[in-house]
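Researcher: Hi, I'm a grad student and pretty new to this. My advisor asked me to get structures for two proteins we've been looking at. I'm not sure of the right format, so I'll just paste the first sequence and hope you can take it from there.
Model: That works fine. Here's the first sequence with its structure tokens right after it:
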Amino acid sequence: MDQPFLNPYLDSVGTPNFQRGCNFATGGSIILPANAASTCPFSFNIQVDQFIRFKARVLQLLAKDKELDNYLPSADYFKQGLYIFDVGQNGLGGAFDSKSEAQVLAFVPTIFSQFETGIQVGLHTFVI
């Protein structure tokens, strides 16, 4: 693709450039909200919350200081963006290891309901 990697959302060292986008990914993330037995505390709902905070803060900062256009995405980018989520394999993989096929199939709508939350806040083009 010959494109640079996106700066991570949690990267606050130096001057991160979010003009081309922001990376909310975490290794081992899960689709359902985390609990004490979860392998990673960063579930999909946390990543959606991070996106909501990021978008609100970007729009707030751009309204105050136009010089930040060099570092932050424009408001239009949020409408046109492609949102890639590589999440759900850990939950599904674990389900296949410990549940019957019928239980796994019953689990799939729960997974999709988590993505509906993302759609409700403006995430509209997904690669999963």
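Researcher: Oh nice, that was easy. Here's the second one.
Model: And its structure:
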Amino acid sequence: MEKMSKCKVCVTGGAGYIGSCLVKKLLEKGYTVHATLRNLGTSLFLISLRLALDLFRASLISNRVEFADDRSKVDFLMSFPGSDTKLVLFEADIYDPNTSVRRVIYTASVVSTSPLMEDGFGFKDFIDETCWTPLNLSYAYSNPNLTEYVISKTLTEEQILSYGTNSDIGELEMVTLPLGVVGGDTFQSYTPLSVALFISSLTNGEFTYQALRFLEELLGKLPIVHIDDVCEAHIFCMEQPSIRGRFLCANSYVSSSEIADYYQKNYPEHHVLERSKERNQVGHHKANLEGFVYKYDTKMILDDCIKCATKNDDRSKVDLLKSFNGADSRLMLFEADIYDPDTFDPAIQGCDFVFHVATPLLHTQGYQFNNTTEATITAAKSIAMSCVQSGTVRRLIYTGTVVSASPLMEDGSGFKDSIDETCWTPLNLSFAYSDSFFRNYAESKTLIEKEILSYGTNANGTDGLEVISLAAGLVGGETLLPYTPSSAVVLISQPTNNEDMYQKLRYLEELLGKVPIVHIDDICEAQSFCMEQPSINGRFLCASCYVSSAEIASYYQQHFPEFHVKQEYLDGPKREIKWGVTKLVEKVFEYKYDKKMILDDCIKCARRHGDLQ
């Protein structure tokens, strides 16, 4: 593969928590970036990074992407998609032999990797890329939005991956990166929802805690990952000579109670709500992104979430992205909207790699789609096809979530012995701590990841495009955003006594057996790793730790005594599911953050944003 710095990379959803961090890292590495935003008028931060950054307006709802420069070409497409509940099939031309796109990297979510058994009777013994969220189940702590999200992410990832096996689409590589809950700091002017999930036990936010518990019940525990690790994982997938498939991205797999315990022990100034419910755990999380090394552990992720939550930055999304070094000459922003999928096309053109990270949590009314699942799956297909037609994109790297890789048995009778990239969340099951939102979320993330991966199987006429899905664990750590990311909030939900976020943490734990967690830095490094490989394809779970919520709570209790961690957080489930995710590590990716680093960074992040004292 030619010198990677000469490649053009398209990043969809560039103004988000993960997207903005990834754009910054790509610029720092010398890449020229095409970034899409739904509304360029609200992205002054990215505009400030103009040097090697081109911005494009794009929407996943539309069937057309307006290019800022039709003459530009991109080699890689990194897509950060939305979520919803229904799979919408549509025809599009992805057979252009002159396409520049070499790889499509779809950013999926671990909600598509639930280790829940297909029958809903327990978790598998592990969570990894083999896990797919059972979409036929009901999940504890779920609601219509969460359920829709799970279905959308799962179906979309499955569809994306299916294109990676299609001999008709040439050499386009399809990669999905199902991300764990992302923690860490942010450049954004608000606290990312994922960070809010980490610290829900500290902030007492009912909504975020419920979401956290939903994830825990869906994933067994919470796969968490630092935002930096998420970005590095994306770049990793892009820089591989060749890479295809699904890769869960999370370096820690912890329970909501573990997170609560960590905050209780390490942040005693915050009161963590007590919990007494016993919870089961998935034994372990398998890291499969061979060669990728996570830099953030659970502590770092959680601490960065705290830092992120304490920061108060009112800069707009565009201002944030444009403030990065090299943005003035190597960052181009584009308006793009999941509900107007063709609007991503201009950003993709001329790029070598595409990171698909864009993902809406809530449904936008007024479009032809009934829900976010329809919109995001349609957008995923449109983005993959744009990669093929670009003539330059070599690899598509999708950042997903481990909720799509549940190790639960298909019949729901329990968990598999381990969790790895072969796990797909059984969508026919009901998950503890789930509600309609969680159910939708798990189904959406699972379906979307499968959809994305389908493009890497040549099943959709995208031969030649490498597709990678990085199913990220729960992401922790610091953030560039002006608020604590929801994933970090989830990781610190125990020390913050955020019931809503704690429920989300428990949901993940119940879905995945335990919680795969990963530092945001490791996620970004994994993304970079996937991009820089000569060739890489498939699904990669991305998480450096696979821990129970009780382990997280215990950590906070021991290391942040200023926070009160409720006993019920410490009494989480004790499962022995093995972490069988090794694909990324086998490719020589090295996680730099362990559980301690991830959780500590979540705390730091929340404190910096004022969410913790």
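Researcher: Is there anything I should tell my advisor about the second?
Model: You could mention this: The chain has one domain: 4-608.
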